[in-house]
Specification:
Helix content: over 70%
Number of helices: 5
Radius of gyration: 17 Å
Strand content: under 5%
Oligomer: single chain
Largest sheet: none
Shape: elongated
Number of strands: 0
Distance between the termini: 58 Å
């Protein structure tokens, strides 16, 4: 019974996380290919964190080993955080602080 609850909870987290991660990709790449679409912002951290948590809930050891992968693959997690940090560091260096 516990395994069924874990599978259902993992599926819900993976579904929400995958939707948010796909939305982040569409938002990031969509402005290049769909210039008429109004500007929207990506959802930072939600997609990758939900997917990582969903992988941790799956009652299989192999899935738990790969929990970190969605954090890297989701554009709204590590890549956008690194880009923001790099932007901050470069602009701070330009300001002379």
């Amino acid at each position: 019974m516990v395994a069924i609850v874990l599978w259902v909870a993992a599926a819900m987290f993976l579904l929400v996380g995958s939707y948010c991660a796909a939305f982040n990709i569409v938002v990031t790449l969509g402005s290049r290919f769909l210039p008429r679409v109004r500007h929207v912002s990506p959802i930072p951290l939600i997609g990758g964190v939900c997917d990582a948590f969903g992988l941790l809930l799956i009652p299989l050891q192999i899935a738990r080993r790969w929990f970190w992968l969605p954090l890297i693959l989701d554009v709204g997690c590590v890549p956008i955080s690194l880009a923001g940090l790099l932007y901050y560091v470069l602009h701070r260096a330009e300001d002379g602080q």
